[in-house]
Amino acid sequence: KKCKEEKMLPRMTRSTFRVGLAASASAAAYRMSSCDAMPKAGLQPDKWTALTLSKITKLSLNTAIYRFAFDDSSATSGMTVASCLLTKAAIGSEKPDGSRANVIRPYTPISRPAVAGHLDLAVKTYPDGKMSAHIAALKVGDKLDFKGPIVKLPYARNGHKHIGMVAGGTGIAPMLQVIDEILAEPLDKTKVSLVFANQAEADILMKRDIDARVADHPDQLRVYYVVDRPADTKWTGGVGYITEPMLKEHMPAPSNESMVYVCGPPPMYKAICGAKGTKEDPKAQGDLGGLLGRMGYDASQVFKF
Length: 305
What we know:
Shape: globular
Radius of gyration: 19 Å
Structural class: alpha/beta
Strand content: 25-35%
Largest sheet: 6 strands, antiparallel
Mean pLDDT: 89
């Protein structure tokens, strides 16, 4: 019995051609659905697995898509939606014995869970980002340790009528994971509204790829871009910080039939929904605050990735 992705290949190919080479890895993955047979998982949630860097696709001066290959070309990531994985490298402070401490960081693949043979990470290199700098320094053929999936928020088809998303920078990755899950299932009628903030238009990760999704699903997916520094007067999106009027216009109103996801740097969490984490548990959701808190959303209607 053929897999669903085989039936959808012609459409996938047209989209991949349209969005261009830089986003082709994600665009192709987005079209895929899982096969009837359960493939072997290339990752384990309780054990570190070394994967080999097989391809680097530059998106900008400091951002690229890094493809990591499984030893078994038929294996998939085993990721669920929404979940992340962990990366590990001995690049931390030096220990008394001369070795270095491990640095562990979470990432969300932009490739679909059913893609066989590899996973793709979109990584932006930050000056003080130890793991992002380490990944940027890797050469094709080098290895990196992975563990996962780590489930963040199990997605249920048609669980909400409308999902709002507020993302900043590489915080787009978990949003795309959910968006792709929704758009890959014709029976899922969930509407999605995304506000995506970046410093400049050139910093918008996979913009062509995102726009292709909107073009394919105009009645189900809407995207509003916000930048700090527009390149010219032709810019039609938002400018500056995300504001309450922007959210009122583009997010679903507070309701038990809607949900708002937020993912970005710490200042964004603080401004949009309140800081993530508590003294006791840095991974906890934390109190709802910020703009969404003032707009009347309940804590159960907002999730901080």
